[in-house]
Design brief:
The protein is α+β, with helices and mostly antiparallel strands. The protein is 17% helix and 26% strand. The protein has a single domain (6-256), classed as Endonuclease/exonuclease/phosphatase (Deoxyribonuclease I, Chain A, 4-Layer Sandwich). The strands form 3 sheets. A 6-stranded mixed beta sheet has the order 3-4-2-1-14-13, with no helix packed on it. It has a 6-stranded mixed beta sheet with strand order 5-6-7-8-12-9. α3 (123-141) runs parallel beside α4.
Length: 259
C-alpha cells in the first residue's frame, strides 16, 4: 500500500550488490530517498550480505538458483499487499529475474531480462521470454495498472545508443529484441523517459572498456514502463548518469496520486 500522494520509484542494475555496497550504495540510498528501490543483478542471497538495511525499508528478494548470478530485490518503505517472485513458467523462474509487488494503486514489476549473449546463442530463448513476460504483465494488468522497470537488455530505437549503425546485429540491438520491446509499446505500455525527453545522448549503461562512460558512449537499456491509465499521474522520469558504482546507473520516475 502506497499512502504518500507522491511516489518516487528507482531502478538500478547494481552488477553485484556486494560489490556496490563496498562503494557508494548506502550513501546513494540515503541521498536519493526512494519510496521503492528495485535492484537487478544482485548476484547474491540476503544471507550473503552482512548488512543492516535502513530501518525504513522492508526488503524482498528473488535470487537465482545458480550462486552469484542474476537476481532481483525490492526495497520499499511501504509493505506491499503481496509479493510474487515468479511468472509460473519453469524455464523462466530459475534465474531470479522477476519480482512483482502489489500496492494500493498499482502492481510494480522489477525485471532483469535475459541477455541474448554476444554470440546470440540465447536469442531464441530471449524471444520466448519477451512474449511470456508480456503475457504475465497483461495478466497482472487485469487486476491493477502496472509499472515495470529494470534492465531490459535492449536499446529500443537508434537514439537509445551512441553507435546504432555499428550495432544493428549485435546483442541488445537486434531486430528481434527491438521487436520484443515494441510489443510492450503496442500492448499499451508507455516508455516513461520518452514521455519527457525525445532527444538522444541519454544512456544508462556504458561498457567498462575504452573510457566509454567518460565519453558518454552508452546505451539506454534500463527503463520504467507504465500502463496508459497511469499517465495522468506521471510527473517526471529521469536518469542518474552521475551515480557510479556499477556499469549501469539508476533510473527513476515520480508519480503523483493526489489527482
Amino acid at each position: 500500500m502506497v499512502y504518500a500522494p507522491r511516489v518516487k520509484l528507482i531502478s538500478w542494475n547494481v552488477n553485484g550488490l556486494r560489490a556496490v555496497l563496498r562503494k557508494n550504495f548506502l550513501d546513494y540510498l540515503e541521498a536519493e530517498k526512494p519510496d521503492v528501490l528495485c535492484l537487478q543483478e544482485t548476484k547474491c542471497t540476503p544471507n550473503d550480505v552482512e548488512q543492516l538495511w535502513p530501518a525504513r525499508y522492508t526488503t524482498f528478494w528473488n535470487s537465482a538458483e545458480k550462486k552469484g548470478y542474476s537476481g532481483t530485490a525490492i526495497f520499499t518503505r511501504t509493505r506491499p499487499l503481496q509479493v510474487v517472485p515468479h511468472m509460473d513458467i519453469a524455464e523462466h523462474d530459475r534465474e531470479g529475474r522477476v519480482l512483482a509487488a502489489e500496492f494500493d494503486r498499482f502492481v510494480l514489476v522489477n525485471v532483469y531480462v535475459p541477455n541474448s549473449k554476444r554470440d546470440l546463442s540465447r536469442l531464441t530463448y530471449r524471444q520466448r521470454w519477451d512474449a511470456d513476460f508480456l503475457r504475465h504483465l497483461k495478466k497482472l494488468e487485469k487486476k491493477k495498472p502496472v509499472i515495470f522497470c529494470g534492465d531490459l537488455n535492449v536499446a529500443h530505437t537508434e537514439i537509445d545508443l551512441a553507435n546504432p549503425k555499428a550495432n544493428v546485429h549485435n546483442h541488445g540491438f537486434t531486430p528481434e529484441e527491438r521487436a520484443g520491446f515494441g510489443a510492450f509499446v503496442k500492448a499499451g505500455f508507455l516508455d516513461t523517459f520518452r514521455e519527457f525527453e525525445k532527444g538522444g545522448g541519454h544512456y544508462s549503461w556504458w561498457s567498462p572498456m575504452g573510457g566509454a562512460r567518460s565519453r558518454n558512449v552508452g546505451w539506454r537499456i534500463d527503463y520504467f514502463l507504465i500502463s496508459q491509465s497511469l499517465r495522468p499521474h506521471l510527473q517526471r522520469a529521469f536518469i542518474r548518469p552521475e551515480i557510479e558504482g556499477s556499469d549501469h546507473c539508476p533510473v527513476g520516475v515520480e508519480l503523483d496520486f493526489k489527482k
